[in-house]
Design brief:
The complex is a heterodimer.
Chain A: H1 6-16, H2 26-37, H3 42-52, H4 56-65, E1 77-82, H5 85-89, H6 92-103, E2 116-121, E3 133-135, E4 138-140, H7 145-157
Parallel strand pairs in A: 1-2
Antiparallel strand pairs in A: 1-3, 3-4
Chain B: E1 12-16, E2 19-23, H1 29-35, E3 59-63, E4 69-72, E5 82-85, H2 89-105, H3 120-128, E6 146-147, E7 152-154, H4 164-172, E8 178-181, E9 188-191, H5 203-208, E10 214-216, E11 229-234, E12 243-249, E13 252-258, H6 271-275, H7 277-280, E14 290-291, E15 306-307, H8 310-321, E16 329-333, H9 339-352, E17 358-359, H10 368-373, H11 379-383, E18 388-392, H12 396-399, H13 401-414, E19 417-421, E20 434-436, H14 443-451, H15 465-476, E21 481-485, H16 494-504, E22 510-514, H17 521-526, E23 533-534, E24 538-539, H18 545-549, H19 561-569, E25 575-579, H20 583-586, H21 590-599, E26 602-607, H22 612-615, E27 619-622, E28 631-634, E29 639-643, H23 656-666, H24 676-686, H25 695-701, E30 706-707, E31 730-735, H26 743-746, H27 749-752, E32 759-762, H28 766-770, E33 777-781, E34 786-793, E35 801-805, E36 825-830
Parallel strand pairs in B: 1-5, 16-17, 16-25, 18-19, 18-21, 19-20, 21-22, 25-26, 26-27, 31-35, 32-34
Antiparallel strand pairs in B: 1-2, 3-4, 3-5, 6-7, 7-10, 8-9, 11-12, 12-13, 14-15, 14-27, 23-24, 28-29, 29-30, 31-36, 32-35, 33-34, 33-36
The chains are: A alpha+beta, B alpha/beta.
Chain lengths: 207, 832
């Protein structure tokens, strides 16, 4: 839909400055674009290509490799229901069908008000907690059918505000103390050991 | 590590299928096996690209001391005492399994697939694969085909994800506009939405695709491989002389394929080379001679050209040439001809008619004495590791595609340093160590500063002193220097390039690779189609062997193209011969060319098409085009390679060398040459540099051809004075691009619509000074005229220059140029 806006462009430039090779910033920038629009728009990818000095085809190549980068518009809340074996045995498919009825869409679809996108997901890596569901990648373990409906109702009515919109990034930025920061050095120029590694002992006469 | 003896052996001993073979140090196992007669099947591996191990087809059993195990032979370098089994049961089972996997999703549509019959997947499935499929599930389906560029179509369901096209795009062409998308079973090759794979080299991906996934529009559904006849030849559209295979069916050329030649094009072609055959199949090709009825000659309104028999046309030509003062004859062109035809025409004009007013270049080249007088370099010398390349010439990416790929590879992979001294940035600028853009006309001053001993303290030719000193230091650091020398802008006099070349020739260990771009122009210079020159790189001045062997000889050096046209325009010529030349469109002074054609009593054109200049001629002789005659071609290195005949010319069109012989016969002379063999026999006798060249020797030299050595003396002219600039004016720079509207490209359906829209490009900071807005229409004017085009901002253009693409229909910068001036200034003003 859109290129990065002025505020995000400033953040993007800050991200770019952390890497010796611009291309390395591609994935963080894709996250930023997804936070802006809720998905990664074509224009945003073209913008990232300019920023990283690569072609848009290379950006789409990386972006499309990752399932969690959405290249088409999704709802504010992305609901993933697992139907892999453990969940299937414990009612995952019923859960999916109940939510389809509730939202009035088929899995893979988005509601008209752009609030919810429902997806039939492969294993969510919580087989002991089946049936399992995620809303914007927040887990709901051993969820009952009525509970799931309530989650939807609460999100829709605004009674539940603990789940941020799809694409929102964690607000705690990584912080590395200066003493332990390797600094920005292109890999081919990094001839010293990283600061966090103890200096290697000089080679002896052989063991 | 302690074994000193092992470093002395020439090869690495490897046991392949029980037999010992010697591999070269660092050689990949798959190459070592192939070189020793053991072919390992493969899809993704390509010898001109880095291995990736994508397809797993080349799995073989390898024991490097840890026991036998399957390893991809394209990813493993040979090591001492390696034991390899390429035909064991385990290897066979692995290959069988890989093919079965590849065929899970590959459609079995071979009967309707263009690749069927020449398909590595088909062939290797027959040779190594399972007899039948065990899969009954449904295969992938995709929309088919999708056009990933104007000329390349992609059928995604046939793709086996070998990474060849995507690697080519990134590694070789440097245009990574196609990429793998998605993951797992859904992986596909595709472009970014609405951004096509518009690389000048996209056609190569079709040739290297190991399945029928990528097809070229001009060849789709045209023929089956088993119906094709083929012959090796040389691409003639530019002067690189890329080696090609010409394939035809039913007397029609259908496809050019690149041939891997170590010293020239490495198997790659630009799309202009690859698809140029379309023009020669075009229905507008001249099939018969045309003559303007004699009755109307001389009157203001002349009759139309009409088809005539060859005897009539040739008699008319003879009449116009017989008993004419040699100084009143002019011949322009000849760069399209084969070496043999060039020699025959040189002999006809210089040796029979006695005229030296012959020039194969159209005022957009360099003096023959300079090109033939400087020490010559080969492409291999330019690209050798440790060297430095100085580019003083046109953008290789736009004009000499195969050379661009070689230079790009040399800079990226072999650490060759590239220094540009060009009037604007080029396709190689992003790879250049230094990119200097001297003001037009002042390249010589810059070159003198670069080779001089003193440190420069002020700007030279608009280039900052610091940059000048940095480049000077680089050039003095040692190592061989190769200057790629050509004419980048027709709006700047050739004297400026000569000036720079003379200065650079004083460097140690320097050689020059000519970047004149017009087809066989180097053959033309070698064969004497230039004023003051004789064949065999001999100057006219010395008493040469030709003066005794030829019936006559011009008394003194004649006119170059500009002087010929000027003489013709002044009514000082009786007959003007256009040897495949279109001066109205090609000469950088269109007005002068038009007047010249109007004021000459008889104009004879020898050509493939009735272009603007030929249409103004009185006799038009229909000539045979590439692929329609046998002969040879001289590329920019001086490398002679064979041209072979594949099809017959349209109608009664005849090869150029036969036309020269026929004309001589009509004039009552005899060139005494009846075949290309006889031409070479005569040349070997008369010109020492051709002592070892003959059709048999060229046949024996096969794809590599023969590089002719030998230079003549060149006298350096005095340095050029800088020309001051009118401060409201901009220096005009013209350039040519890969797809312009030159005669051949305009007749190639695949390329004709790819030409850019005409624009004038300025440096971003010049806009405000001139009061023009980006994208708006501006008037570009000189004393000669004015044209209106839209204006474009380009930071690759230096301040104070205005760059226009020539050879586009709608805006012709050649209308603005005064060819006698060293530089041409233009005003750029908003259109009222």
């Amino acid at each position: 839909m859109a290129r990065l806006n002025a505020e995000n462009l400033a953040t993007a430039n800050e991200i770019l400055s952390r890497y010796p090779v611009k291309k390395s910033a591609m994935i963080p920038l894709l996250h930023l674009a997804q936070e802006q629009d809720g998905y990664v728009a074509d224009d945003a990818m073209a913008h990232i290509a300019e920023l990283c000095d690569v072609t848009p085809a290379e950006v789409v190549g990386t972006c499309s490799f990752y399932e969690m980068f959405k290249r088409h518009e999704v709802g504010t809340y992305l609901v993933n229901v697992c139907t892999n074996i453990s969940c299937m045995l414990l009612g995952g498919e019923e859960l999916l069908h109940r939510l389809e009825d509730k939202l009035g869409i088929k899995h893979g679809g988005t509601t008209e008000d752009k609030m919810f996108t429902l997806e039939d997901y492969e294993c969510l890596a919580a087989c002991t907690e089946a049936p399992c569901m995620q809303v914007n990648y927040r887990y709901f373990h051993r969820i009952e059918l009525d509970e799931a409906e309530k989650v939807i109702d609460d999100l829709r009515s605004g009674a539940r505000t603990d789940i941020p919109p799809h694409g929102t990034l964690g607000k705690v930025r990584q912080h590395i103390p200066t003493g332990r920061s390797a600094g920005i050095v292109p890999p081919e120029q990094a001839n010293e050991a990283p600061v966090w590694l103890p200096a290697p002992t000089p080679e002896g006469e052989g063991s | 590590m302690t074994n000193v003896e092992s470093t002395e052996i020439e090869g690495i001993s490897v046991t392949v299928n029980g037999a010992e073979v010697l591999a070269r140090p660092g050689e990949l196992l798959i190459d070592a096996c192939e070189r020793n007669g053991v072919y390992i099947p493969r899809f993704c591996y390509h010898p001109r690209m880095k291995p990736v191990g994508m397809c797993r087809m080349c799995l073989v059993e390898v024991d490097t001391g840890r026991g036998m195990g399957l390893q991809p032979s394209c990813m493993i370098t040979c090591s001492p005492d390696m034991v390899v089994e390429t035909e064991s049961e385990v290897t066979k089972k692995a290959q069988d399994g890989v093919l079965e996997f590849l065929l899970i999703n590959h459609p079995l549509d071979c009967p309707v697939c263009d690749k069927g019959g020449e398909c590595p997947l088909q062939d290797q499935t027959m040779a190594y694969g399972p007899g039948e499929s065990r899969f009954v599930e449904e295969k992938r389906h995709y929309e088919k085909p999708i056009a990933i560029s104007d000329n390349v179509y992609l059928d995604r369901e046939r793709c086996i994800l070998c990474d060849r096209c995507t690697r080519f795009a990134k590694e070789v062409a440097g245009d990574p506009l196609i990429h793998f998308q998605g993951r797992g079973n859904g992986t596909e090759v595709n472009t970014f939405p609405d951004e096509p794979f518009s690389s000048y080299f996209a056609g190569n991906t079709v040739q290297i695709c190991p399945v029928g996934a990528l097809t070229a529009k001009p060849y789709r559904f045209q023929a089956r491989p088993w119906d094709l006849e083929e012959v090796q030849s040389t691409a003639t559209i530019d002067s690189v002389g890329s080696r090609i295979t010409v394939q035809s069916s039913r007397n029609k050329v259908l496809r050019y394929l690149g041939v891997d030649v170590d010293s020239v094009n490495w198997g790659w072609l630009s799309d202009r080379e690859r698809f140029s055959f379309e023009a020669f199949n075009h229905e507008d090709r001249l099939a018969d001679p045309l003559v303007r009825p004699e009755a109307s000659m001389g009157s203001a309104k002349r009759d139309q050209l009409v088809t005539a028999p060859w005897s009539t046309a040739l008699r008319r030509c003879a009449k116009a040439l017989q008993d004419v003062d040699p100084n009143r004859i002019g011949v322009i062109g000849g760069a399209r001809l084969s070496n043999e035809a060039q020699y025959m025409w040189a002999k006809l004009v210089k040796g029979v008619l006695g005229s030296d007013n012959v020039d194969a270049q159209l005022g957009d080249g360099l003096p023959a004495d300079l090109v033939l007088g400087l020490p010559r370099a080969t492409i291999d010398r330019a690209c050798a590791a440790g060297g430095t390349v100085v580019l003083v010439g046109p953008d290789p990416k736009e004009q000499l595609g195969a050379l661009y790929l070689r230079l790009r590879h040399a800079v990226i992979e072999d650490g060759v340093q590239l220094i540009e001294l060009t009037p604007h940035s080029t396709g190689l600028s992003r790879y250049a160590t230094h990119s200097l853009h001297p003001r037009p006309g002042e390249a010589g001053a810059l070159a003198r500063a670069l080779v001089g001993d003193s440190v420069v303290e002020s700007d030279i030719a608009g280039v900052a002193a610091a940059d000048v000193n940095a480049v000077a230091a680089t050039l003095k650091a040692g190592g061989p220097v190769t200057v790629v020398l050509g004419r980048s802008s027709a709006a700047e006099s050739e004297d400026a390039v000569v000036d720079a070349a003379v200065a650079l020739s004083s460097l140690d260990d320097v050689a020059f690779l000519s970047a004149l771009t017009r087809g066989n122009v180097h053959g033309a210079l070698d064969m004497g189609l230039a004023p003051g020159r004789l064949p065999g790189r001999q100057p006219l001045a010395t008493g040469s062997s030709f003066s005794t062997a030829w019936p006559t000889m011009p008394a003194e050096a004649g006119f170059d193209t500009h002087e010929i046209l000027q003489a013709a325009a002044d009514g000082r010529l009786d007959t003007l011969v256009l040897l495949a030349a279109d001066p109205i469109n090609d000469f950088p002074d269109a007005d002068l060319a038009r007047q010249a054609l109007e004021n000459t009593p008889t104009v004879i054109a020898v050509d493939l098409f009735l272009h603007e200049s030929a249409a103004a001629a009185d006799v038009v002789l229909a000539a045979a085009g590439p692929g329609e005659y046998a002969g040879s071609f001289t590329n920019l290195e001086g490398r002679i390679s064979q041209l072979n005949q594949m099809v017959t010319p349209p109608g009664t069109a005849r090869p150029d060398w036969i036309l020269a012989a026929e004309l001589a016969f009509q004039l009552g002379a005899d060139l005494e040459l009846e075949s290309p063999e006889q031409v070479w026999a005569e040349l070997a006798d008369l010109a020492p540099i051709y002592a070892d060249v003959s059709p048999a020797a060229l046949e024996a030299a096969a794809v590599e051809g023969i590089v002719v050595e030998g230079t003549s003396l060149f006298e350096a002219p005095a340095p050029l004075e800088a020309v001051s600039n009118d401060q409201y004016a901009l220096r005009l720079v013209t350039r040519r691009v890969m797809y312009d509207q030159g005669t051949v490209l305009a007749h190639s359906p695949s390329s004709a619509h790819l030409s850019p829209s005409p624009k004038v490009a300025l440096h971003p900071t010049d806009f405000e000074r001139l009061g023009v807005a980006e994208g708006s229409d501006v008037s570009v004017s000189s004393a000669r005229g004015a044209i209106t085009v839209s204006v474009l901002s380009d930071s690759g253009v230096p301040r104070g220059s205005a760059v226009m693409v020539s050879h586009l229909e709608d805006a012709r910068p050649y209308e603005l140029i005064d060819a006698t001036a060293v530089v041409n200034d233009v005003r750029v003003e908003p259109v009222a």
